[in-house]
Design a protein that fits this description.
Shape: elongated
Strand content: 25-35%
Number of domains: 2
CATH class of the largest domain: Alpha Beta
Number of strands: 9
Distance between the termini: 96 Å
Helix content: 25-40%
CATH architecture of the largest domain: 3-Layer(aba) Sandwich
Radius of gyration: 24 Å
Number of helices: 4
Amino acid sequence: MAERAGNILRLLLIAIVVGVACGCSTMNSTADLEPASNQTLEYYPGLVKGFEHIYPARQIMVLAVGDGCAVGNQGQSSDGAQEIGVTVDSHGKVIQRLYAANIADTVQRALAEAAKGAGMVSTLSGETTYTAQAVAADYVLQSKVVKCWVKKQRVVDSDKNASWQTVAKFAIDAAIYKPPFHVPFWQGSSSETYSDPPDNSGIMQEDQASIYDEPGQVLSVAFTRSVEGIFKRSDLHSLITQDRALRH
């Protein structure tokens, strides 16, 4: 009799655990998502190591980024925020569009902060295009965002349990000018792809879990690495450290 009662108790406990798990799964389902979500693009300084304080204390003017993330077929929300990505279900159907505001300003400030972290003295400019007129700086940085996208998608693990995976891509084309010369002193690009959790060809592993709650945070990691990656470039570092400044 005691054994039967024990079995019944175990079955009840299992039912409770399964019910709680099902409830959590329902709360984390695609049905809970709004058709649009406002995200925040942030600069996370210090993600890229090895470029801090290695540049001479030259003055660099960072021009405004005219296009922000307005590349490709991205649209805008009703309040003017730019589309930065989508959330899709396990069949690839878009169930939510992601937006962020003030992207161009965020990119410009991040470039200036990364330059400062590299050891340079950075200032901001409201101009978007370099002109070889009198400039109160040793160098002028002109940039353009060429890739800015994040996709959050439903994937399954080896036991067919649904979970979320987010992949973000960010890329910047940059040109650095040395006034009063018209041609670029240096030009290049920096691109990053970041997956949370790591990409495993659409199949999640049981022991993997996302670090970030919001897709905007995942895009922010790729964005930060792309920005700081410019100053990690050995060719740029060599050019500036070996260059003789024209301003006195």
